[in-house]
Amino acid sequence: DSSSSSDSPILDDSPVLFLEVGSFEGSSATWFAENVLSKHGDSRLLCVDAWSRDLFEATDGQDEDIPLRRTVSSALGDDGALGRFRRNLQKTPGGHQVIGLRGASATVLTALAAETALVGAVDLVYVDGGHDAAHVLEDAVLAFRLLKKGGIMAFDDYGGTATTETRRGIDAFLAAYASLIRNQLWNRYLLAIVKD
């Protein structure tokens, strides 16, 4: 079962809504902005990233410490990956159509799912956040809810130099959601599925 190009807003000039989980310095976001978003002024890309390693490094090993560190890291300036992300998008056609959402992916994706207008509205999800199996699985499950029927979810780091952990998380998602997906496409590094 394959879709024709007229069935996909990504391939025509309709506005699209993308979600990227794990943006780092914005390499893929700048590509999406220039090559897809700039074609239609109403298209948007939501980029979810912590933009700070300290969100994932507990000093005491307690998960309840994460909101405090998020508050602290949000007060930091534009040094590091977040600053490079912003600068990269400022000089990119379509970069103004990208919205950065800073925080732990589980927190941000849960908040996005609470916005009922976004549930089932996203055309493309690109998952390239945390690389341990549990984090990859959690990102995929939470983002899948936002994906529209016929939408595409792509996972980076599935093959090639991918870690065993990353691939394990993706494979767990594929096994759990097998009845809700179709058309798996895989190249050397990327795996993409279509939501049925």
> What's the tally of helices?
6
Major β-sheet annotation: 7 strands, mixed
Number of strand elements: 7
Tell me the fraction of residues in β-strands, as a range. Answer: 15-25%
- Placed side by side, the strands forming the largest sheet appear as 3-2-1-4-5-7-6
Distance between the termini: 10 Å
Strand and helix layout:
Elements: E1 17-21, H1 27-35, E2 44-49, H2 66-74, H3 81-90, E3 98-102, H4 105-114, E4 122-127, H5 133-144, E5 147-155, H6 164-176, E6 181-186, E7 191-195
Parallel strand pairs: 1-2, 1-4, 2-3, 4-5
Antiparallel strand pairs: 5-7, 6-7
Helix pairs in contact: 4-5, 5-6
Walk me through this protein's architecture.
With 196 residues, the protein is α/β, with parallel strands linked by helices. It is 32% helix and 21% strand. A seven-stranded mixed beta sheet has the order 3-2-1-4-5-7-6, sandwiched between helices. Helix 1 links the parallel strand 1 and strand 2. The longest helix is centred in the last third of the chain and has 13 residues.
Describe, in short, the structure shown.
This protein is α/β, with parallel strands linked by helices. It is built from six helices and seven strands. The longest helix is centred in the C-terminal third of the chain and has 13 residues, at 164-176.
Search tags:
196 residues; alpha/beta
